[in-house]
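Q: DUF1611 domain-containing protein, please. Structure only.
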Amino acid sequence: MGNASVLAAPSDAPERAAPGLPQPYLLFLGDTRESGYAKTAFGLRDWAPERCVGEYALTEADVTTGLTRMTPIEARSAGARSLLIGVANPGGTIPESWRAALLDALEAGLDIVSGMHMRLTDIPGLAHVAERLGRRLIDVRVPPADIPVASGRKRSGKRLLTVGTDCALGKKYTALALWRAFAARGVDSDFRATGQTGIMIAGGGIPMDAVVSDFEAGAAELLSPDAAPDHWDVIEGQGALTHPSFAAVSLGLLHGSQPDVFVVCHEPGRTEMIGTASYALTSIEEIVDLTMKLGSRTNPAIRCGGFSFNTAALSDAEATDLMARESERLGLPVADPIRGGPAFDALVASCLA
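A: Structure for DUF1611 domain-containing protein:
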């Protein structure tokens, strides 16, 4: 079975429980065959391992988190309180092929937590069984009511946004790592989650891809309100400005966040955009140029702080050499936040400069 193209987060990852969610979790991988679509499961494994009992997958799945494979009954005996859907597939759908597994989880005594677009109550028979057994169906991907239309008003405080050359390559991991590094340096800061996994880790946030398009920028303004002049909001990015499916959420988040600094996330070796019909990956330089042009509409002082590379597929020597060469070529720090080291220290310093 294949593993996701990420390294485990450091052991001092932030410990922020998601209030109200029944923990610990049994991570459900469904029948997923592409690691990029299991990013929710990998995010929980890497940033909240103390809240993950094991994993549960259908026989068709070709992805694993590396956690102990368990049935719902075994997980309940091990202390799990809920089955958490660890998949973020295109469209956020819950296929019919998962229904029996979800029913088994309820019968085993587990609640179900989902970050999918499709509501758990829309699955035929699931709500009836949950009610009969006294179990909860919890949908995380629900935006707050009465989100305002963006005003474009410049807010106090400082903001950093992670952007990317594609989806599912490290924007959340980068934001979490930078937030932790800021805090370690005594910088007053908050991690602002914009996706279901980040919300499960942080305990709050807004699921930006569940917001109606006209209110995307307004939701981003709501997510990062006025703050003290030296306070940093480190905002989790979504999608990519050039992705044919998800560019809308990326642009709304960019305009509403009004970032002072952005960090471009990239996976060396990836050539096509995930989930598309052979669309070539956009170059790092084009993403910088687009982010500067579009972001300057709401913050003329926007700047690029550097680059975050997901180098999990490379050896230490290969990663170090590549990042050094790319840093020299691009003129800004290039680092893998999960590897850390002097390169990441330089990225942090550049962002805070």
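A: Brief note, in case it's useful. The two ends are 43 Å apart (CA to CA).
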